Fold this protein.
Amino acid sequence: MKLKYIALLALPVLAGSCKKFLAPDSLSTFDINYVYSNVDDTRKGVNAAYESFGTDGFRSRLSNNMTGNTDIEHSSGWGSQSDRYQIWDLNALSTNGDLRQFWNAAYTSIRNANIAIEGIEASPALQSSDVATKNLMNHMLGEAYTIRAFWYSMLIYYFGDVPNVREYPKAGANFFLPREDRNVILSQVIEDLINIEEKMMWADQCPYSTEQVNREYTIGMIARLALQRGGYFLTPELNMEREPDYLDYYKIAKDYTEKLITLKDRELPRDYRQIFMNQNKFITTVNSEVLFEVPFALGNGDVAWNIGITVDGGATASHQYGSGSNYMAIPPSYYFSFDTLDVRRDVTCALYKVNTDFEEVFVNGPTNIAQGKWSRHFLPNPPGQNSAKGTGINWPMMRYADVLLMHAEAVNELEGPTAAAQESLARVRRRAFAESLWPSKVDAYIAAASSSKETFFNAIVDERAWEFGGEMIRKYELIRWNLYAEKTEETVETLKDMANSAVTGAGAYANYPNYMYWKRDAAGHFMVLNPNRKVAAPPDETWNRVNFLLDLWDGTKSTYKEWVTKDWANYYNGPKPGVARYIFPIPEEAVAASKGNMSNDGYMFGN
């Protein structure tokens, strides 16, 4: 079942709105007391908080396009001054349109969540003697709190301290709030979710299961927010710091991941590819991997338009699947970091694209490895020759593997690599390998990683990279671990080493492929002869040769390709070397409208 509120709802409940909700009268014709007096209208009011997920500020910006560059995903940003390139280069201006869209989407959703929260908490229906009514009202209250918490988490990652709006815009409210300490906001939203989660419903009790916020997602968000609150953050002086009470928040993450594991555990699906193919095929699962996914209606959502395996379409195409590109590519350093027997690599990293003849052909070199989890050519029905945006493919907000790895991380931070922490890591890692390989690839690997708290933490850092590649959450992890600058610089050094080996035939990567050989078999299936290591020559002339690691080197200039040296440069060698200035200026319209209560001081903006 595919929930369709994203494309259909625009539900402001403030007087004066002219937007309609599939009916002659919109909710804006009623006051807040009426709207939240009954379950049906409350549902419509809470749905308004979801609306921002369907705007460009989320669907093509925040969810994927703004979340590079990292050690596992990247796109070039130094060659242009347009909005997205400014963000990719960590050098965005306060006039940046993409940041403005994100800011507006976030605060619109926060406003609508605040309306719902105040309306529900004042509603007699919340105390109804009818158990079903009371349960539904409490659950919808939890949805509103959780959506608000999500947007604050994201605002903090991008802007640092931000206005803390916790009441809806009614007469007498203060509309000109200054920036609030980000850690105060995070502590508040964590407490909000802790207070409500037990009154919420599990996904298998919800009408739209994992296509709406549910109790398991809220519990997972408590853990995620707690790790953010307990993690590092960038100060205006460009120092990475963490609060002295950080272990209290690791304890919250431990407690709530354990709570979900105890109350609502589930086996991870063995077929890793199918998790994402379900989204491509519009299949919603429950009590399985995905805890919550944004339910884009057909005609909405940009998954497989600006992220995923490239499909060349348009008027000259012989197929009806339309056009889709990939703004965030996979660097070859990440591709080759996988164990060659790890099934996640070939799901996450696609070495092919689909051309206008609907044939799979090799990507254009090592800079264009695609995020292989989604593509419009997987859709159950072709959307049309000239289609592009609006694929309707859902976007995953949290998976159960994330809960298990957060549990392993929190336990390790508090107690070291205990048996419980090792088992949570093992559960995720087992799926990555055939069962016959578990003794060496899982048991022995984790035993070695458990020699110390530090080595186990490093194993978690690696495992999260391999598990969540292309899902665009790595940026936030690197920030809270204080590894953003270190990991991006490490990526560049690895790419340079690969280039050196390709040119000299010596070094750590001497046996890795300078060239890759590919063809389509008799059935038309795409094949790569040497996806792992170098071969002297193909067995026959049916194989096509393409440059691979050799393409990291610019032979005309006798140096590395510019994308190697420039794409990540500002992440570790920006205004303060060794620190990634990941914070951006607040949009100038918001600053101007604050009547002097906000500014963009600090962070060496303009440098």
